[in-house]
Design goal:
The chain is an alpha/beta fold and 381 residues long. It contains 13 helices and twelve strands.
Length: 381
């Protein structure tokens, strides 16, 4: 991470406290599944994990009238990491700006915890090549890290609505751009040393500032290559030749859209994790899929994205690299041996329940996990 990002695992402990925010829809089911895996890994790795629970999203609206508990940010800061399921659902949908919406809680918790970088690793799984709408030879070997800015842009700029008009402002300051781009370059040093910055500099003034600052940051990293792509071209290139990308960095709304597009390269949004990190305090981990209210409570949701988010937490917040790799390898091994939930099963394949898929991942874990410890800065290269 960048020099402004806290070295989250500088003090490695044998016990960690995690704030669980199960949220809405399938959120409680996938969080429960990931906690089963975490508990097994902790036993086999010789450390302990303790959990707290908080209300975020529609469940908070129902319980306290707001999308986030009043003291939730403080409680999160007292933990070592925050683990989120999913928020939202049709029962809370509204176009009334005066009414609370679950999605407000995501922006609120990110702001309260000063999380400015969303990291979304996108990797193709050989066992799931048939699930992608792209040809297997196009997605084979895809390994992209999407770095999305979280605190600026249209989602946080000045806005106004009247009866017949509305506007949102894409606003960025130099420091906001510098810290997210620096984050991307440091990540690239631990990967293939290639950064692609995505903007709309041919139209937007904010993008011209973005490109200017990116060029300045790049001068500090002569061992990392940089190229610029306009966002419409980047969207096309992601489906034309995704293997060309290593680290892709962009602003908030572009990152929101492109990371979801990149997620579908794998054939299922249910396979991909994410981490949101900042300069101080704890980081937040969550799958990138939504609350899927249509299948909530049926026990069929794919837990893999949430389990892989737990692996990110083990790595980035706890400094437990071997434990993280063990989880990642267990997920891949389960897939290689035919484990499938309904969203990734072919027509001739048997689909597993959430619990059964979690069982298969746990069964693929090694009996003992080495306790390799390292700092967050080591991960960032």
């Amino acid at each position: 991470m960048s020099a402004t990002v806290k070295d989250m695992s500088a003090t490695v402990k044998d016990a960690y406290r995690v704030m669980l925010l199960p949220g809405d829809g399938v959120g409680p089911e996938i969080v429960a599944a990931a906690c089963r895996v975490l508990d097994e890994v902790a036993v086999r790795g010789g450390f302990a994990i303790e959990y707290e629970r908080g209300l975020l999203g529609g469940c908070a609206i129902d319980a306290v009238g707001t999308p986030m508990e009043e003291d939730l940010a403080d409680r999160c800061q007292a933990c070592d990491a925050v683990f989120l399921g999913a928020v939202g659902g049709p029962r809370w949908d509204t176009t009334d700006p005066a009414k609370p919406r679950p999605e407000q809680s995501l922006l609120g918790i990110r702001k309260a915890l000063a999380l400015f970088a969303n990291l979304r690793p996108v990797k193709s799984f050989a066992a799931l090549a048939h699930n992608s709408t792209l040809r297997p030879d196009v997605i084979e070997g895809v390994d992209i890290m999407v770095v999305r800015e979280l605190t600026g842009g249209l989602y946080f700029g000045k806005r106004e609505r009247t009866a017949d008009a509305a506007y949102d402002t894409m606003y960025y300051e130099r420091g906001e751009i510098e810290r997210i781009v620096d984050c991307a370059f440091r990540l690239a040093r631990g990967r293939r040393r290639e950064v692609t910055s995505v903007d709309k500099a041919n139209v937007l003034e904010s993008s011209r500032l973005w490109r200017e600052v990116t060029e300045q940051v790049a001068q500090r990293y002569d061992d990392v290559s940089l190229r610029h792509l306009l966002v419409d071209n980047a969207a096309m290139q992601l489906v034309r030749d995704p293997r060309q990308f290593d680290v892709l960095v962009t602003e908030n709304m572009f990152g929101d859209i492109l990371s979801d597009e990149a997620a579908m390269l794998t054939g299922s949004i249910g396979m991909l994790p994410s981490a949101s990190v900042g300069g101080e305090g704890v980081s937040l981990y969550e799958p990138i899929h939504g609350s899927a209210p249509d299948i909530a409570g049926r026990g069929v949701v794919n837990p893999c994205a949430t389990i892989l988010s737990a692996a990110l937490m083990l790595d980035l917040s706890f400094g437990r690299r071997e434990a993280a790799r063990a989880v990642e390898r267990a997920v891949e091994a389960a897939l290689d041996h035919g484990a499938r939930t309904a969203d990734i099963a072919a027509a001739d394949e048997t689909s597993l329940t959430t619990e059964e898929m979690t069982d298969r991942v746990i069964a693929a874990l090694p009996p003992a996990i080495a306790g390799t410890r390292r700092s967050h800065a080591d991960h960032a290269g």
